[in-house]
Amino acid sequence: MKIKTKLIEFEKENRNGRIYPKELMNSVMEQLKSKNSPLYGELGQDNNSFDISLKNISHTIENIYVDDNSIYGNIRILDTPKGKIVKELLNNSQSIGIASRGMGSINSDGTVSDNFKLLTFDLVADPSFDIYISRNTKEKYIDKIQELKETWEKLELKKDS
User: Fold this and answer.
1) Phi, psi of 13 (to 5 degrees)
2) Residue 12 lies in a domain
3) Residue 112 belongs to a domain
């Protein structure tokens, strides 16, 4: 399952009182693009951890790009235990929030400073920006058709062998 979505906004105060400057986020984007490894995200967020816990991975973030004052990307839900929880929630018409996880200083005016390092985007119940992923009925049917097609192909392969 893959969902195209907004990941974060900048030049706008979030519910945590933080403002991400556009110049900083453009720099962060360049760092993300230069990574040779996948950008994994977790279901839930441990604000005291700056490591990605393999047991909590639910998704990857792909095809990240900047448009206006936001970063967008594709969230690919993985077939991990936490990914299955996400799929179940989405398939039952629930919305899940997106939250950035990073480390760095915050200036007295609430702007995030230049030493900020973005680690990932996690899926959470209560995000600091009003950014959520959800699935509409059409997407659910498309996924079901794809699942049936893959099952059919597997049956065809078994039949031929």
Assistant:
1) -75, 135
2) yes
3) yes
CA–CA dist 8, 6 (Å, integer): 6
CA distance linking residue 76 with residue 97, whole number of Å: 15
151 Cβ contact partners less than 8 Å away, ≥ 6 residues apart: none
List the domain range (segments joined by +) for residue 51. Answer: 2-133
Pseudo-torsion of CA 42, 43, 49, 50, nearest 10°?
20
The total domain count for the chain is 1
pLDDT in tens, the chain (161 residues): 888 888 888 888 888 888 989 888 888 888 877 777 788 999 887 766 677 878 889 999 988 888 888 888 889 999 999 999 988 888 887 888 888 888 888 999 988 988 888 888 898 887 777 777 776 655 655 666 777 888 888 888 877 76
In a domain, 145, yes or no: no
Helices (H), the chain: 22-34, 81-91, 137-160
Rounded to whole angstroms, the Cα distance separating 110 from 18 reads 5
